[in-house]
Description:
Structural class: alpha/beta
Largest sheet: 6 strands, mixed
Shape: globular
Helix content: 55-70%
Number of strands: 6
Amino acid sequence: MVNKFLYHLPLYRQHQQLSAAGITLSRATLTNLTKRGIELLRPIVIEQLISVLDSNTLAMDETPIKVTRQPGVGNKPGKMKQAYFWPVYGDKDEVVFTFSQSRGMKHIQDLLDHVWQGTLLTDGYAAYSRYEAKSPDITHAQCWVHMRRQLLKAEREETDAVTHALNLIAALYKQESHIQQKGWTGEKKQDYRAQHSKPLVDQFFAFCEEQNQRADLLPDDSWMKALNYTLKRKRQLMVFLENPDVAMDTNHLEREIRPIPMGKKNWLFCWTELGAEHVGIIQSLISTCKLHDIDPNVYLTDVLQRVSQHPAKDTADLIPRRWKPLFADNPLKSPLL
């Protein structure tokens, strides 16, 4: 599992390695062992999701995955169906890759309705804004990096204007870097942002509004589109000034998403929706292990043995964040080593 989901080595290549080492084992056996092992981990990821939803601030995104081959029409070959992982990142440095067949708002509702309230940090995808409009207990914050990418699309046409806007954003990130270096949190962080970041934010949006009034810009110009995108999201982009626990961007979540597209380059797709769920389960634990400086191989070796003797009522002790102080000093070893 570690070789496939951490190092992106498909099972057929692992089978080749085993065969070259003189170990006779069918590929179907490898597949079944992986499936059964991940099923043992499902209750742990459910507990981890409960822990994530206990956060005051969530970061959320979506990334596509191909699953379940659909039959073709007539002589045309079938195609893989597009589905999505929706990773959710909590304020205790835990991430869970939830799975859905669609990219619609319904998955956000099914996941968060009646069980969570707080600040939701996302990119500019419209489904999140629609969800906020229907959820009075949700505050929607948006990512400055995604907004910045829209500005970059107009750099060739409006070099000077885009450069000025990017310099203001860079100055903002310099303030965030200073906060991080000092280790400030809570009220101290909010006060610093109010004194140093807010004037830059006000200057940035004043510049965007000024540019938006230019008579020489057409609606189809890339710079006008970027300005409209930015100004439409002004309120959401300013939430980080009001809440010190909100980051300026979703980069911390996107770093955890990266193994999914990297893995797809090797194992390409999932044959079934259950297989996609399994990818989400194991990736949730591996990514969270890395966030807490836990060796995924040591963690999985311990937990896959410990589940047979650990009380079911204490399953939450096996999520990586809680496992580390309880069991990391004396983990169970593989009997094969």
